[in-house]
Design brief:
alpha/beta; Rossmann fold; 2 domains; six-stranded parallel beta sheet; four-stranded parallel beta sheet; 15% strand
């Protein structure tokens, strides 16, 4: 269960493909099952249930009791949720319906960089979620440590599968393509020898985009060969910031608006991946970029520290420090050999520790182990 079907398709598809040969699976979220495409078949069904992403007491209570009725009627052996809101509702409803196995995967905490009452209340909701789950999973070891330090879970109630990540990376899909690199660079009018820094994801302030903009402004003044490529939907009204940046550096700031179904193409066109985020559960996009052969410049925060080996597969910087980001950009821009060496190390690490197959097999083994405790097949 997730709040929206896009998340199920993006994060859970490899798991669903590996699990459906052994289990009957029902997918629950808001919206339409059309977004799930070829995932649905005789073993995989979709059930639409309206879940607001933001807190709405009335609508959330209605959704809770609809879920309880649905779970009770279907008599599921297991309910597994991702995303904060859907996780809270799913774990409460599943416990009310006496579902034997209730699992939730944490992929980051919305309260991590909040303060005051909002932080207290959001932490409390995560505690309630964890208390009603049979077991919770974290998609990184540093996130597990963070949740323990904040008393959200107990040591015996939370685990990490394999080496982390929610779904792993498709190493056959995320491969460098010289032809795609040439084609995209021609389309974007980026020179063959230019050094391209890439951000790919949702544009919001928690991703540190304002810091990245300021850092590039400094970097571009010292190095005329650097370019910035920003790909993704604008969620926080940051478009103006990059329009202004493009005005300062004509032809060197490139903006691709909206979601993309081919992130690997933009990664092939780039040289360094940037994620100056303030909060992440794991930073899966860093591993995907690493599989292409890109080193990363990223924040030294829980989640990302699992995705980047500082000095080997990339460079970590203090959150909010545009000065450190700029220094890392300038350093990698002028050190081609180091950049390529870090990129090769990032690819080896992605393949050996975070492949889609490894993570899916770990989840399948987890289910088998849990179900065997009560004799369920």
């Amino acid at each position: 269960m997730a709040t929206v079907p896009f998340v199920i398709k993006w994060f859970m598809k490899p798991h669903i493909v590996s699990l459906k040969d052994k289990y009957d699976i029902s997918l629950v979220s808001s919206g339409s099952g059309k977004e799930l495409g070829d995932l649905l078949d005789d073993s995989v069904s979709f059930h639409s249930l309206q879940i607001d992403r933001k807190i709405s007491f009335k609508n959330d209570v209605v959704a809770l009791f609809k879920l309880w009725y649905f779970f009770r009627k279907q008599k599921f052996d297991c309910v597994h949720s991702i995303m904060p809101k859907s996780g809270l509702l799913a774990m409460l409803a599943a416990r009310m319906a006496r579902v034997p196995f209730r699992f939730h995967t944490f992929t980051g905490q919305v309260w991590a960089n909040k303060t005051g009452l909002s932080r207290f209340l959001l932490k409390l909701l995560d505690k309630v979620l964890a208390m009603n789950a049979s077991l919770v999973l974290a998609d990184s070891h540093s996130q597990r440590k963070f949740l323990l330090e904040n008393n959200i879970v107990t040591p015996h109630s939370i685990i990490v599968l394999a080496d982390g990540s929610i779904a792993g990376v498709d190493v056959n899909r995320f491969q460098y393509s010289a032809s795609v690199r040439t084609q995209l660079r021609n389309e974007l009018k980026i020179g063959r020898n230019a050094v391209v820094f890439l951000f790919l994801g949702r544009l919001n302030k928690d991703k540190g985009l304002m810091d990245l903009s300021q850092a590039f402004k400094t970097t571009a003044q010292y190095n005329e060969n650097v370019h910035l490529l920003v790909v993704g939907p604008d969620e926080d009204g940051l478009e103006f910031e990059f329009s202004e940046l493009a005005r300062y550096f004509p032809g060197r700031v490139h903006r691709v608006v909206g979601f993309t179904d081919c992130p690997e193409n933009y990664m092939s066109a780039a040289d360094v991946f940037c994620l100056p985020s303030y909060r992440e559960g794991f930073g899966m996009v860093i591993i995907e970029a690493g599989a292409i052969g890109l080193p990363a410049i990223a924040s030294r925060i829980y989640g990302i520290t699992d995705a980047v080996v500082d000095g080997k597969t990339g460079i970590l910087h203090q959150p909010t420090s545009d000065k450190e980001i700029s220094e890392a950009m300038l350093f990698l821009a002028k050190n081609d050999k180091l950049r390529h060496r870090m990129g090769a190390a990032a690819r080896d690490r992605a393949i050996n520790k975070f492949s889609e197959e490894q993570v899916s097999q770990a989840l399948l083994g987890f289910y088998r182990k849990m179900f065997s405790r009560c004799g369920a097949s």
